[in-house]
Write a structure and sequence with these properties.
This protein is of the alpha/beta class. About 50% of the residues lie in helices and about 15% in strands. The strands form two sheets. The protein has a seven-stranded parallel β-sheet with strand order 3-2-1-4-5-6-9, with helices on both faces. A two-stranded parallel sheet has the order 7-8.
């Protein structure tokens, strides 16, 4: 396999669009998600359409051992991962003290632990050959606290700052680390998290547009890529650092209250 991108959460949404974009450019793929049937269908589609090679790995990344198992499987096949795209993640609406702890723990395991572990496993190989790019899918939620999605916003803050920090650690290498910060996007995320019933999801960006912005930003070695914001959201994001925190908290809470 050549010019390989490993993409998590590749069975739908932004992850699936990442896979299509990379395949269009002639790159091979390792696609990861829980649904093996969806991954196989995507593999067949991309191999037939673009003549590339696709390896399927069906794993539940909320399980702590999955990241290392993926790395070992890739290494055993002698596959060199040039692009690591940590896309898998999920959210959930509700007051923290009322939400099911098991769901929030799974969210932390996926959004933070799996992403960090995969980066840790694959990054030394990139450093050794002085070649590679990492794209971590964060969110514009990472820029502010998120009442009614306290854990999700906090996990994405981790993703952004973690990505930025290791990007600087690698400043003297040919390896780049990019954080993609989408706004509300038309994927299954809205329905699964319950966000589709809030005003934040009244107008969503296309998954393809967000994926393309992220992919191009990764290829250019950008630090952060913000994508999919409406004009009002851009204004709010720009002024957030200057706005008293209590006001921001109230605004975010009101936007995330279900209709």
């Amino acid at each position: 396999m050549k010019n390989v991108a490993l993409i998590t959460g590749a069975s739908s949404g932004i992850g699936k669009e990442f896979a299509k974009i990379h395949a269009q450019k002639g790159g091979d793929l390792v696609i990861v998600a829980r649904s093996e049937n969806k991954l196989i269908a995507l593999k067949n589609e991309l191999e037939q359409t673009y003549g590339i090679s696709v390896k399927v790995i069906a794993k539940d990344l909320t399980k702590l051992e999955s990241a290392q198992e993926i790395y070992k499987e890739v290494k055993s096949k002698l596959i060199t991962v040039e692009y690591l795209i940590n896309n898998a993640g999920f959210g959930g609406v509700g007051k923290f003290h009322e939400r099911e702890w098991e769901k929030d723990l799974a969210m932390i395991n996926l959004n933070i632990t799996a992403l960090t572990a995969l980066t840790r496993f694959f990054l030394p190989d990139m450093v050794k050959r002085n070649s590679g790019r990492v794209l971590n899918v964060s969110s514009t939620a990472s820029l502010i606290p998120g009442p009614l999605q306290a854990v999700y916003y906090a996990t994405k803050a981790y993703v952004t700052f973690f990505s930025n920090a290791i990007a600087e650690e690698l400043h003297d290498t040919n390896i780049t680390v990019t954080a993609l910060l989408p706004g509300a996007t038309a994927t299954e995320f809205g329905k699964v998290s319950g966000m589709d019933k809030t005003s934040l999801f009244n107008k969503t960006a296309s998954a393809y547009k967000v994926a393309l912005d992220g992919y191009n930003g990764m290829m250019k070695g950008k630090l952060d890529v913000i994508s999919g914001l409406t004009t009002s959201q851009k204004i709010m994001t720009a002024f957030a650092p200057l706005t008293p925190k209590k006001i921001i908290l109230k605004q975010v809470r009101q936007m995330q209250e279900t209709n």
